[in-house]
Amino acid sequence: MKRAFDFILALSGIMLGFPFFLFMVFLVLVFDGWPVFYFQERVGLGGRIFKSVQFRTMVPESEKNIGPLQAREGDLRITFLGRILRGTSMDAFPQLWNIFKGEMSFVGPRALREVEIECSDDKPRSIWEFEGAKERCMVRPGLTGVAQILAKRDIPRDRKFKYDIWYIKNRSFLLDLYLIFMSFMVSFCGAWESRGEKLNFFGIREFREKVENQLR
Fold it and tell me: What is the tens place of the pLDDT at every residue in 162-180?
């Protein structure tokens, strides 16, 4: 049922959102130039590697001299348009194609690179070094999820993984619908890049307390 829902919703989004897609391509070309898209290898279901596609939000060759560095607060590599796209999650619109192909889901753990330099670290580290990494690969990575909505942006990766494991153990269709609705609200508020709490209404505070009490 989840895969059928993902497929139908992704196909509908691609078809209905095609004019918006072309408009976004135009904006990126005008403000930031070529290339429009950014392809990056991510870890998916069963640990398989797939190529995620997004609108480019950083300057070209942003990692040439620094390596796979996670975006940080005030990151100078992010373009003006990129900050708007990232805050509203519009940069992820092309990932509907990844969902359509079955590489991603609308809801699940965040699709991560296999090796990355975290905000709280100064050297590249593999995700397999962290407890819970294998369990995360039991489901498809998602555009949104419990960790993406509830966890603060820059907390350590192993802490975020606990939110992902909670989702895997408690996942349901109704929970997915709730998280999708919450994601629309975060996008509406332009709060995806917030380093603090992204939402404090629509019952999110009670939901956050419930999850974090079970994580203790």
Answer: 999 999 999 999 999 999 9
